[in-house]
Amino acid sequence: MPGMDDQRPGFALPLLLLAAFHALVDELHERLVAVGHPDARPAHGFALQAIGPVGVTTSELGRRLGVTKQAAAKTVAALERLGYVATGPAPADGRAHLVRRTARGEELLALSAEIFAALRAEWAARLGERRMAQIEDDLDRIGGGRRLSSGGQMPAW
Questions:
Q1: Residue 92 and residue 12: Cα distance in Å, rounded?
Q2: Of 24, 35, 51, 94, which has the most beta carbons under 10 Å away?
Q3: Which pLDDT does position 95 carry in this prediction?
């Protein structure tokens, strides 16, 4: 492992960040399987967050996810098959469909939040709470303080 004086190549940083992200998300999904969500995928979590608590149209979901309306419709169809969302006519526009999270979708998000908290605690136990907080602060600073929220654009998966 390189020391403080060793310079890693620039391309190593995104690979390290990606590996840590995948480790976290893969462990999340292993634990979700154990609590009754074997078909949940990372894209589903992003979509459920983007749908938000009051629901959105498929077009708006596509904008929030940074994907086409057609890609959003495919995601909605998959989520609906799994029981995570329900669709119906939008009150303001009968031609549009409103996508809302179901109780099962809300459960998935709640369980994911609990599991992420447990995983963070496990990482903090390995690294130390102070170091963990420093890493989070550093990532926040490097990210420019950006926050991904249900109202903003989410990363395409």
A1: 49
A2: 51
A3: 80
